[in-house]
Each structure stands twice: as structure tokens, then as C-alpha cells.
Design brief:
The protein is of the alpha+beta class and 335 residues long. It has 9 helices and 12 strands.
């Protein structure tokens, strides 16, 4: 993908998580294919439908991930989609139903309408991120973005009101022409590209090398200083992430240990000072007939009561933090 955070690229491409990384173009997939070193699988992970990621890709992705169809079939034309098992169950839809893409922003002024997509298949559970995704052809993802669109035939007599001017075979339409927001057998032929596909955006490419040597050569071609793209190995990226997490955990554990030691030392100091201040009181209890066992039991019970009260208070504060901490922090930051 485009140069940037390797972790963000890996998470977006393999788990459909994190924000959309810096976009590259479809020419990168063509570049890998022309090299003959690997099979490119383009990915465009940017849009959603009811908070489920819409993954624009090709049919090769299903073979690469070993995904099988539970019901229906794979997508074949524009506007068709295949659902992961978890998405299909949560939405309650299956082959023959439809799902609608969500706008990127409530205040989207670009005029790109949500696309109504036909569900043609549901995948078997794979217990991976694929179960929570909606798969479409990469061209359908471009339709969602508005880069590929279809509209009524401007040559037809009923479209005369939408014609701005005619110059020979060139027809210029005005703003009254409404783009289709659903792809059907009747209008699929009207959908067309503007410009070359090479410049169309994608979020990344999965390069599947033919062998280890081809993979090494391909990685070497992306090491130049003036290279605008990067190639990453997911295993290496995730190992680095886990290493960072484990290092942070060690620091957190060490910090908690130091805090615990300091807290215990402070508590012990407080109790010792309390005993010294109460020496006369203890002597008085002894003089009026209190045994050492009774006096010791009384002092220990006081210490236990303080500790129990502290634990209960800490538990209450922890519960309140879990329930309202996120909203409180957001209010403090935004307020």
C-alpha cells in the first residue's frame, strides 16, 4: 500500500480494523501482476453498512482465504455482495435480500447516494475477521464512492429535459439527471468509468508470491528511497506489535508493583504511628484488666475494618469508572 504506518496497513487489510490508511491506486495491483512475481489481490476497505466493513476485492480473495459459500453464490456483477456469516446473522438477511451502504458522513455534501446492494451469497463461518465483513467487487466499491456511476440514456426521448447541450455525438447533461443508487439488470449497462482504472483508489494489495524467491525479489523492489509505496509482511508487523504490547505490560506491572510496595509501606507507617499515639490508651486497657489477646484482637479488628472499607471504596470507584469513565473523559475533553 501507500507509504505510512505498516501496522495501520496490516490491520486494515487483514482485519478491516483501524482507520483507512493512505490510499494507493489500482496501478499498484497491475504493477505486481506485470512483474510476474506474485498474484495481486486488490483491497478497498473504506465504506460500511450498519457498522460492518464493506470489502472491495476480487474473487481470488475467497480462494486465498479458503472461504466457502454456505448458501447462494459468489458475486458476479456490479452491485452484488456476499456476506460473512456473523454479518448475515446480525442483520437477519440472506440471498435475495438487500443491504445498503452507509454514508461516510452525515453531512456528506458530495451528492453520493448510498448504494443498495443485492445479497447473492453467505459464507460459511471461518472464525476470522471475514465473518464480520461484506464483500463486493472492487468496482462496486468505486460505485459506492461515486467514481463509477450510471444514469438514464441521454439519447432517449424521455431524457430530453436533462440535456444541457448537444454537439455532434457528445451530449452534456445538466444537474437534473439523477444517478442510479441501485444496480439492476435494466440499468447495469449504463454504469461506466471516467478515465483509466489505473488511477482509481484502493487501500492496499495482498501480494501472494509464487515462491519464496519471488517474494524476496518483490520486497526488494520496494526498498528504493524514492518508492512511493511500501510492502510489509503481516507476520513481522504483528510480532512487532505483540513485542511492543509485552514491553508496555512489563512496564505497567513494574509500576503497579512499585505503587503496591509504596502503598503497603505507607499503610504500615500509618498503623505504627497510630499505635504509638494510642500507647496510653493501650496501657489503660491493660490496667483495667484487658488481656493481651483481647487488646491485640481489638487492634487487629480495627485494621481489618479499615482495609475492608478501603477495598469496598476502591471497588465502587472502579465500577463507576468502567460505567461512566469514557463519557466523563469525553465531556472533559470536549467541554
Amino acid at each position: 500500500g501507500a507509504k505510512g504506518s505498516p501496522l495501520e496497513l496490516a490491520l486494515n487489510s487483514l482485519y478491516f480494523e483501524s482507520d483507512t490508511p493512505a490510499l494507493t491506486t489500482y496501478s499498484e495491483a497491475m504493477r505486481i501482476e506485470e512483474s510476474g512475481l506474485a498474484q495481486p489481490i486488490p483491497l478497498y476497505v473504506r465504506f460500511q453498512s450498519r457498522e460492518s466493513p464493506i470489502v472491495g476485492t476480487t474473487l481470488e480473495y475467497f480462494d486465498f482465504r479458503g472461504l466457502e459459500i454456505a448458501s447462494g453464490r459468489r458475486m458476479a456483477v456490479l452491485g452484488e455482495c456476499v456476506l460473512g456469516s456473523r454479518v448475515a446473522a446480525s442483520m437477519g438477511v440472506g440471498p435475495g435480500d438487500t443491504v445498503i451502504s452507509s454514508p461516510e458522513s452525515v453531512f456528506d455534501l458530495a451528492g453520493v447516494y448510498p448504494l443498495k446492494m443485492q445479497v447473492v451469497g453467505v459464507l460459511k463461518p471461518s472464525y476470522t475477521a471475514d465473518d464480520g465483513a461484506i464483500f463486493v467487487d472492487v468496482k462496486t466499491a468505486w460505485v459506492i464512492q461515486g467514481l463509477v456511476h450510471g444514469h438514464q440514456d441521454m439519447d432517449a426521448p424521455e431524457a430530453a429535459a436533462g440535456v444541457l447541450k448537444r454537439e455532434g455525438d457528445t451530449i452534456t447533461a445538466n444537474a437534473s439527471v439523477v444517478q442510479y443508487n441501485e444496480i439492476t439488470p435494466d440499468n447495469v449497462d449504463s454504469f461506466h468509468f471516467h478515465g483509466s482504472m489505473e488511477g482509481y483508489p484502493i487501500s492496499g494489495v495482498i501480494a501472494v508470491p509464487h515462491d519464496q524467491k519471488s517474494g524476496t525479489i518483490l520486497m526488494g523492489r520496494y526498498e528504493a528511497d524514492d518508492e512511493v509505496s511500501q510492502i510489509v509482511q503481516p507476520e513481522t508487523v504483528m510480532n512487532e506489535l505483540l513485542g511492543t504490547i509485552l514491553t508496555i505490560r512489563e512496564f505497567v506491572v513494574a509500576a503497579l508493583l512499585l505503587v503496591a510496595i509504596a502503598t503497603l509501606a505507607t499503610a504500615a507507617l500509618v498503623f505504627l504511628l497510630s499505635l504509638r499515639l494510642r500507647r496510653r490508651e493501650i496501657d489503660t486497657m491493660s490496667k483495667i484488666g484487658g488481656s493481651r489477646l483481647s487488646i491485640g484482637t481489638l487492634l487487629v479488628s480495627e485494621i481489618v475494618a479499615v482495609l475492608v472499607a478501603g477495598v469496598l471504596l476502591a471497588g465502587l470507584l472502579t465500577l463507576l469508572t468502567v460505567q461512566f469513565g469514557e463519557e466523563l473523559i469525553r465531556a472533559l475533553l470536549l467541554g
